[in-house]
Amino acid sequence: xxxxxxxxxxxxxxxxxxxxxxxxxxxxxxxxxxxxxxxxxxxxxxxxxxxxxxxxxxxxxxxxxxxxxxxxxxxxxxxxxxxxxxxxxxxxxxxxxxxxxxxxxxxxxxxxxxxxxxxxxxxxxxxxxxxxxxxxxxxxxxxxxxxxxxxxxxxxxxxxxxxxxxxxxxxxxxxxxxxxxxxxxxxxxxxxxxxxxxxxxxxxxxxxxxxxxxxxxxxxxxxxx
Length: 225
Known about the structure:
The protein is of the alpha/beta class. It has 7 helices and 8 strands.
């Protein structure tokens, strides 16, 4: 049975597509057959992974990625049988109920984002036996530890919700990755910078929450389940 992971937050510009695409990059390195579904009408995940214009219902091969394909399905979550499906959901409040994945990845960048999230929490559901909801703070170095504590306190009464505490620091390489259509760790100089290592760690963490790890012969050395 395949696994489904959705990235969602009811606020634009928070890094939802960045996390969706970079998780696909890691899944490809690990040799996991992956379908990225761009549900957001803008189709940014399609353009990023294929460098092609978007076309409704079209399935694309991701450029340079052996194990990743991309589907443009604006405002519609299709039923797909695939080892790993990554949903890049749009930031509409109503989209909170469009999918019932095994796990949600939820990026937040400040108080407004978390307030917007709490307005839609009652509509969000994971599949029975799913991993749950995993928030992380983007631009974590700017928001500070106090905001992380505020997030944890606000979520204390909600079962299945947790905060990935390292967060992801603001980083120029992450910003440029969407312009260059490549992973943030593609530049050797950026590979070990704080924000980039945190981004990769979060993507790996999300895949492991689904019970996934490198496929024999398809992952990087030194990585196990």
